[in-house]
Write a structure and sequence with these properties.
With 191 residues, the protein is of the alpha+beta class. Helices cover 29% and strands 21% of the residues.
Length: 191
């Protein structure tokens, strides 16, 4: 069987907004930041009270550079508490992270079109004036964004797959599937 693993998928930029030179004003990963800010600012006071998990953003993404990650606590606002318009905004934000890849790779993460089991968490300010962080977490994945370093001008984004990051043991899966005792015959030779 063919196995394609693209996670952890990390994109980062420093600076996030170019402040000098011929590319002055250019913003890398702007859509990931702008759509999230638009979304979090569309929440009413009750929704925002659930979504905002801290007044100050963490210094970096929660999953860090660990080889393998387990699901994080589903913090923040459940997508089931969103209006239809807000659900569409959250779908569009989530889709940004997966549209970089072929449909066959992105499809499992996008399978929950109704956003069942998805949570959105925010930390930090609700604009670009200081550090901010968000994460979108489903049953099988987490997407994280932080813009906290370099005076909130240094972005990290990551997509992690809880069951399929690079740390997954493909060789062990191969042996379990293709060399299981029931498939072996003639003293260990496979038919």
């Amino acid at each position: 069987a063919e196995h394609i693993v693209v996670t952890p998928s990390f994109f980062g930029t420093n600076p996030a907004k170019v402040s000098t030179g011929p590319l002055l004003g250019t913003r890398v990963l702007a859509a990931e930041e702008d759509l999230a800010l638009e979304f979090v600012n569309s929440l009413d006071a009750t929704q925002r009270a659930s979504a905002v998990i801290a007044a100050t953003a963490p210094r970096d993404i929660a999953t860090g550079n660990r080889v393998r990650v387990e699901p994080l606590a589903p913090l923040g606002l459940a997508a089931t508490a969103l209006t239809p318009t807000q659900r569409q905004q959250l779908r569009a934000l989530r889709q940004l992270y997966f549209d970089r890849y072929r449909t066959a790779i992105a499809a499992p993460a996008l399978a929950t079109a109704d956003l069942e089991g998805i949570h959105f968490a925010w930390a930090g300010v609700l604009d670009r004036s200081a550090g901010h962080y968000y994460r979108i977490q489903g049953k099988t994945f987490v997407v994280e964004f932080d813009n906290t370093q370099n005076n909130a001008n240094h972005i990290h984004t990551v997509w992690r797959n809880f069951t399929g990051d690079f740390a997954r043991d493909l060789l062990a899966e191969h042996y379990a599937h293709d060399h299981a005792p029931s498939t072996l015959h003639n003293g260990g030779a496979k038919n």
